[in-house]
Design a protein that fits this description.
heterodimer, A: 125 residues, 3 strands, B: 228 residues, 7-stranded mixed sheet, 5 helices, 24% helix, 24% strand, globular
Chain lengths: 125, 228
């Protein structure tokens, strides 16, 4: 017998429609973004640019103004699914409101030097 | 554009750590215990034909479900590293999601509850198959019978290399030790294998696991090693 306690819940249709509106009906981001891709606010944004942003975009900008954040974190804070977040961020990167955070490439978790550093950091927490 | 235009933008290298395991085994608790930020729920909409679904009102003729992941992070400023923690549902129908997560990750912590040990088989199998470094962390619930690491190791039929750690997902120090063991193990594997190759782990023997001695409510019927 399967148990249904761990079943993913079904999103409400209304919420789905809102997401659909948010992405203009698109289902794929133009840029290849992963869950751990990080973005930050572009330096020296004109206030006029900021004023034109929709509520979600403005929220993203506020989140990424002080520090770079990952796609996963932004999605969690916005309460918007990852895929929709990627489309939103992709647009903001295209319009130069956001820039990719450094380092741009995704790190290799099997790199001994990085693992040594992670170990050192974790031990001193 | 130049780096460091923003005053406080230290380039941090982000590394992923996966926290996997069955339902209610403590994934959310563990992420919450070690994360420096309030743990977040990150959702992904899956287009699926298999799960029970509703049709979307004239939006798409696809059906969707939502799957949730726990997200947390640990910033190691001195090392300029950020560890991103993902608590993922341990069901094999979400494996395609894990694939993306496992890529480039340090490895995984497979959480186990000795009362329902078979819940962690699919996660163990997944990481073994893909050569992703993992440790098994047994979350010691107050009401559960205590087993030794060796008993758990043989019940899951783990490669003897794989660390099995008893811990308490609510305790920061205990949880930190689990992460340290995972990184140590990943480092060992990475030094052992040539830089270009993946760590070679022995594939599991395709036999049903024996049950733990007495007290265990887990049923080990059927073959946990399902083909992908």
């Amino acid at each position: 017998m399967p148990d249904f306690t761990d079943e993913p819940w079904l999103a409400e249709d209304t919420a789905q429609l809102r997401l659909y509106a948010l992405t203009g009906g698109r289902t794929r981001p133009a840029r290849a973004l992963g869950l751990v891709s990080r973005v930050r606010a572009a330096p020296g944004l004109a206030p006029s640019t900021v004023d034109r942003l929709g509520p979600e975009s403005a929220q993203v900008l506020e989140l990424c103004g002080r520090e770079p954040r990952s796609v996963a974190e932004i999605a969690g804070r916005l309460g918007v699914p990852v895929q929709v977040t990627k489309i939103l961020l992709s647009d903001l990167l295209d319009s130069h409101v956001l820039v990719p955070a450094l380092p741009p490439r995704e790190a290799d978790g099997s790199d001994p030097l990085l693992l040594e550093a992670a170990l050192e950091g974790l031990r001193s927490l | 554009m130049k780096a460091f235009e923003a005053s406080d933008d230290i380039p941090l290298t982000a590394l992923k750590i996966l926290i996997a395991g069955g339902f209610g085994v403590g994934k959310t608790t563990m992420v919450a215990t070690v994360s420096e930020i309030e743990p977040l729920t990150t959702e992904e909409i899956l287009t699926t034909a298999s799960a029970a679904t509703d049709s979307l009102v004239g939006v798409e003729n696809k059906t969707t479900t939502t799957v949730s992941m726990d997200f947390g992070r640990i910033t190691l400023w001195r090392q300029q590293l950020q560890l991103l923690l993902f608590g993922t549902p341990g069901q094999d129908r979400f494996w395609f999601m894990w694939d993306d997560l496992a890529l480039g990750s340090i490895g995984a912590v497979v959480l186990a509850d000795t009362r329902r040990l078979d819940d962690c088989f699919s996660a163990v199998e997944f990481f073994e198959d893909r050569g992703v470094p993992f440790v098994v962390a047994v979350n010691e619930f107050d009401t559960a019978h205590r087993y030794t690491a060796e008993e758990v190791q043989s019940a899951i039929e783990l490669n003897p290399d794989v660390p099995v750690i008893m811990f308490d997902a609510r305790a920061p120090f205990s949880t930190q030790q689990v992460l340290i063991r995972l990184v140590e193990y990943a480092l060992t594997l990475s030094l052992r294998s040539s830089p270009a190759s993946e760590p070679a782990l022995e594939p599991p023997a395709p036999t049903p696991s024996p049950s733990l001695p007495s007290a265990s409510a887990a049923s080990f019927d059927g073959n946990p090693h399902r083909a992908l």
